[in-house]
Design brief:
- The chain is an alpha+beta fold.
- It has one domain.
- The chain is about 45% helix and about 15% strand.
- It has five helices and three strands, in the order αααβββαα.
């Protein structure tokens, strides 16, 4: 499964986000990614065992992206089959 995460992070240019030495951080990252659900209007996930849901705009700002920053995720991961993941 780690190799799949590396492929995804490389596609969206988050390569450095995955290399974490602390085992708890890695487990939280896996919890987040394994529970991540998306719709056209929002993103939901679990973190520290608690459910979260945010509109896309708020989610990208919480990640630290500038409000004017946009990325076409579908284009960035066009060769990745989400259903097989």
């Amino acid at each position: 499964m780690d190799s799949k995460f590396e492929l995804i992070f490389k596609a969206v240019e988050w390569e450095d986000a995955w290399e974490i030495d602390e085992s708890r951080c890695k487990l939280l990252t896996i919890e987040f990614l394994c529970t991540l659900q998306t719709t056209d209007s929002e993103v939901s996930f679990r973190f520290f065992g608690k459910e979260f849901s945010f509109p896309w705009k708020n989610f990208s700002e919480l990640l630290g992206f500038p409000a004017q920053c946009t990325i076409d995720v579908d284009s960035a991961i066009q060769d990745f089959d989400r259903n097989k993941f």
